[in-house]
Every structure is written in structure tokens, then in C-alpha cells.
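Recall that a protein's primary structure is simply its ordered list of amino acids. Everything else, from secondary elements to tertiary packing, is in principle encoded there. The following example makes that idea concrete.
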Amino acid sequence: MSTVVQPCARCGARWAVQSTPMHWCPRCRGVLLSPAPIDAPAERRNYRWVARRPDQRARRNPVTGRTPSRETPRYTQIPRWGLLDPPPRPAAAAPAPLTRLTKWASSLLIATAATFAVAAVAELLRYLLLLRNRTRLIHPAVLVCSDVLVFAAALLALLLALLAAVAVVGWLIDARRLAFQEIGRADPRSVRAVVLGCVIPVVNLLWPGVFLTEIVAGRADPRALRAIRIWWAAWVFGGLVAVAALVWRTADSLQVKADGVLFTAFTDLVAAAVALLTLAMMRAVQERDVRGRSRTERRWLIAVDPAVPVIEPVHPGGRARRAAEESPQDTADDNGAVDREHEEVLAK
């Protein structure tokens, strides 16, 4: 049997070449391609295969009288002729309304802490002016600068604190959604419940800690839970201090008002500390360090004892030791004689 065949361009049949090549397929009268060995590689063929539809034969439509096009088909999707179809990509989720603000949560918290620190310094400067005013008059320009610094710092700090709070609430919603997705569950609390638990006064002293604790409830690493508890205590303490500062401003005594300036400075410092603790807590929940870098796992190795030689070193025996101790000079002479004899042999 001949090993050289001619494939048909229409039906795909392969005809063995006996003597001279043929031009037309005996089966379908299609064009026969050039002779080539059976299963010849592509570089040894002077033709190429073209993908066609299953009904590749040109048939005239009896209704329209038109002949189907012979152009190479162009597929709008992956053919399903036994190929492995990739899984469909999930539709992109609609971005949350607080997504843009959530990305700036860390920067807003740092800016809030810095602004509250400036507000605390402004209150301390105001208190120093009050002390100096007990014995000396203060220039009106100095008082105006002090008032502008106090009110501007307080107003900016409150504005940044509000934006940071909204950003942290958005981060909390996203963190809860991702945490429950990892365990194959949906968040049991709705977005509305989370938002109301974080913005309603007095109630927001309790529920944020509960919402955060639910995120890390199944983790083996206790650092995130410890950070949440520390932040929770600082959050409640900061709320109580803020309420006390508001009540203090209702006093009528000059001395109490002067002491209220110091207490306001203390309140600003507590607010700055709470902002920084909030940032540290967020990074602990995200399993990051204080600087925001990915936390590397610590590997513990079993401590072993110092290396002990398995084979004891060879020591001279008792008879050889006694002989060496009794006649060290003879041993030296014998060694010298042996060396001289060895030198003589080498010289010969």
C-alpha cells in the first residue's frame, strides 16, 4: 500500500497515489491536494487546512436561488465542538456608594488625629493666655489670632472626624462582606442595620464593637480581637469624655470655664488617640502591621541540644601510654632513626 496520499479539499477523504496523481476526488468530485506522506507534518505540506461549516458543500437555496458564501467563517464566540469552555465570569458588582471615600479612610484618620492634636495645642495656648491675663493685659491682635486658631482647628477637626467616620463605616460594611464570603455565608446583618448601629448616638457606643467582633470570631490569631477590644474601650471612653466636655461648657464660673479649656484640650488629645487606635484596629483586622504592610507569619522551630559526637575520638591505650611515659627519650631516638633511614632511602 502506498504511503503517499492526496487529501480531498471538499470531503476530506485521502486517496492513495498509485502511479500518477489525480486531480478530482472520485467520491465528491472535489479538488485533490498535492501528494504528501500520510500524517506529514505541516512543514512538509504545500497546503493548509481551512475551517469550514459542517455543510461545506455549496448548495443553491431553492427559495432565494443564492449560493452560500465560501468565505472563512468568523466566530463571535468560542466554538463548542468538544472544546473546554471557560467558566463564565461573574458580573462585576456595582460599586458601593461609599467606595471612593472608603479608600481614603486611612488618610482621613491620620489627618483627623493631626487636626485634633493642633486643636489641643490651640486650647493650651488659650489657657496660657488666660494665665497671663491675670496680671497683664493681652494685645487684641493676639486674642484674635488665638480665637481664629481655636475655632478653625475645632471646626476642621470635626469636619474631618465626620468624613473619617463615614469612611470607616463603609470599610466596616466591606470588611464584613468579605469576611462572611470567605466562609461561604452572607452577612446576617443588613447594611441598614450596620449603618444605624454606627450613627445613632449612645447606641453607637455598643454596636460597632459587636460588628467588629463578628468579623474575627473564627480566627485563631488573637491579635485582631485584642486590638478590637482596646479600640472599643477607647471608643467608649472617648464618647464619655466628649459628653463631659459639652456639659462642662454650661458652667457659669470663670474658674470652671478656665478649667474647661484644659479639659477641652484633654478631649482633643483623646479624640486624636481614638483616631489612631481606629487606624491600628483596621490594619489588625486586615492582618497588617501598624505601618500597613502585610504581616509575615512567624515560624517556630523546635530547639535541639548541642551537637554531641556519635563516635568517641580514639585515645592511646594503656600500654602505649605507659611506654611513652617511661621512655620518652627512647621513643624520640627511635623516631629519629626511622626518619634518617627514610631519608637514606629517598636519597638512594
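Residues 341-348 have pLDDT under 50 and may be disordered. The first strand starts at residue 4 and ends at 7.
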